[in-house]
Amino acid sequence: MKENNKLWGGRFSSSSAKLLEEFNTSLPFDKRLYKQDIKCSKAHAKMLEKCEIINTKEKDLIINGLETIESLIDSGEFKFCISDEDIHMAVEKKLIELIGDSGKKLHTARSRNDQVAVDFRLFVLEQNKYIRSLLINLIETLINISQSHTDTIMPGMTHLQHAQPVNFAFILCAYVNMFMRDIHRLEDSYKQNNYCPLGSAALAGTPYNTDRFYTARELGFASPTLNAMDSVSDRDFALDFLYSLSVIVMHISRFAEELVLWSSSEFAFITLSDSYSTGSSIMPQKKNPDIPELLRGKSGRVYGNLISLLTTLKGLPLAYNKDTQEDKECVFDSLDTIDISLRILNDMLKEITINKQNMENACKMGHLTATDLADFLVQAVKIPFREAHHIVGKVVAYAESCNKDLSELTEDELCKVDSKIPQEAHKVLDIYTSMNSRNSYGGTSTASTQAQIQSIIAWLEIHKIGL
């Protein structure tokens, strides 16, 4: 029987079955981690030399060999072989092929358990910063649009029913606040997980006199992880990232639903660019909002990836288990989904047309200034709000009986509904007056919205740092 030629194959008397190699391998997807694997191996080699576990010549040979391998992979010349199992073994095997016995010393004082933990963690932290940069770009686009629409009036809704007049920038700033929270969530996750597991070895640490603080600094981590057994089995950093991506895609999906509604014939608040719309194979008149619909639909797969990893991890005993090989594809898939979703949403928004007149016309349906009239009666006539609410309800019923919106009633019509309504109450029925009366902190008035925009611009300058 053929001898086992794996780097770990010394205790095995026969080679691996072909089906085992297909089932066991992670190389088709974890080769994506090659840059992190090489970076972490170089840091490990430097630490081994610093601690006099290998000599300077060996360290230089290892680092030069790793840089050669990175160049080969970058250029597409590297030949990946499924029998190598994973990116770690593929790189190490090639290194030994290039530099001989010195390459065999690289794996001293480490295991694939801490190797994959540090590679994957470093990848997630790097992508954490990348996703934050995409969110920053999206927020900047939304703010650029908002600055031109702080007095573009439209109906604000609850229960998808007309409620009160707001401005378009105010609604965009609401979504900006969601994406700002997404950035805060990613920042918190980054700090929580910025610790280096390298040097934990298989599960119990190493008998070699190593310096884990050195490798942590070399790789940009805050410090090494505290417990070796936890370090090799921990995938909380991946769960945190998947949860953050799930919340981002939920926010994208909510915004996409607005875009679908706003671009419909019934609303016609916005027009999507032809560059970011599609047609029908049978109905030549159709212009479909496929991008917002797909953005809305992507949430399902991202949520599924989070649940998948939670389920994989839920029953694992300490320490490392092969089950955790299932941690990467779900992260890669969610990352790629959020990446293209944020980029195409950003590009699409830059080309939308805002139909201001249609938005204003919609404010003249649904009696949007009813609450303003009730508030006026409370403040000017000094009657309890619940009584004012009842009076305004009668005014709304009268307006509907006349097939009018509340804002279209004359002074005489308004006053004859109830004797407690003074003539000056009519002024509060104007939709622009209503919108601008809400000048409280965080409110929808033009002035308040402009203040929100300035606050967000200042926030952006702080949170761009380090990205």
From TrEMBL:
The keyword DNA-binding does not apply. Residues 10-304 form the Fumarate lyase N-terminal domain. Belongs to the lyase 1 family. Argininosuccinate lyase subfamily. It is found in: Cytoplasm. GO terms for molecular function: argininosuccinate lyase activity. Keywords: Amino-acid biosynthesis, Arginine biosynthesis, Cytoplasm, Lyase. This is Argininosuccinate lyase. The gene is argH. CDD domains: Argininosuccinate_lyase. Pathway: Amino-acid biosynthesis; L-arginine biosynthesis; L-arginine from L-ornithine and carbamoyl phosphate: step 3/3. PROSITE patterns: FUMARATE_LYASES (PS00163). Its EC number is 4.3.2.1. Gene3D superfamilies: Fumarase/aspartase (C-terminal domain) (1.10.40.30), Fumarase/aspartase (Central domain) (1.20.200.10), Fumarase/aspartase (N-terminal domain) (1.10.275.10). Residues 367-436 form the Argininosuccinate lyase C-terminal domain. It catalyses: 2-(N(omega)-L-arginino)succinate = fumarate + L-arginine. It comes from Helicobacter ibis.
